Amino acid sequence: MGGVGTADHRLEYELAAAAAATLRDAGFGTAVAAIQTGSGIPVPDLAAVTTLAWADVPGLPGATAPGHRGAFHHGLLDGVPVLVLEGRLHLYEGHSPAEVVRPVRAAGLLGVPNLLLNNAAGRVRSALRAGAIVRVRDHVNLMGVDPLSGVHDSRFGDRFPVTAGRAHDPWLGALAQDTAADLGVELPSGVYGAVHGPSFETPAEVERLRTLGVDVVGMSTVPEVLAANQLGLRTLVLSLVANPAGEVADGRSAEEEVLDVARRTGGDVVRLL
Ligand code: HPA
Description:
alpha/beta
């Protein structure tokens, strides 16, 4: 674990490449997409699966957040080879931004061209209901950090990656909308506001997020999207609306509420994938 500090992406490249080599040696072949699952959202059922715990992959700190078990799985989802990154590292756990994006960079260096990310998020736009799935069409990074800051390594991509029209891939977004329509799953699109956490937002902060045009708020995913964008991966983010931001149901911790909604409606996220 590290603080924000100054990342040296030349070293980060070596770490991500070593992780990718370990996965390759463990029999992880090519995959059409990498899928990273968020808090409590079920891991899709894969056929012919190979699993490796994060602890067995060099350079990856253990995942400790609730609902996150750190493992990589490779297998077939409806006959299509996919890589599943089960679990996620968060800034609020004390991981540095560069550590947070290492699993995604490892997937990128394995040659996986598409990255599908899901997360549980708080509702800012009042019209969304608990359990709704939102396709993230854009984000506002309020985490105070960019995982690409530090000493640059051009093997990861551009020094100043363009995000407009890329970070949330329009083609994958349209595919998700078409698939949702075919399955009869409602899929509003929205803007994800990424905050550092771990404190949940105050009502005043939620009001401020609304004026910024944020629809859902969460403590994850944007670092991974930025690292994937630099590597040239197409990304799609689906957010599961777990709770009204700035409020929590009586008698339950925020964490229980988020995990409960994720367990109940995470299945629709998996169907969409
Ligand atoms: N705020 C921030 N992150 C979250 C929330 C929230 O209300 N719910 C789930 N993740």
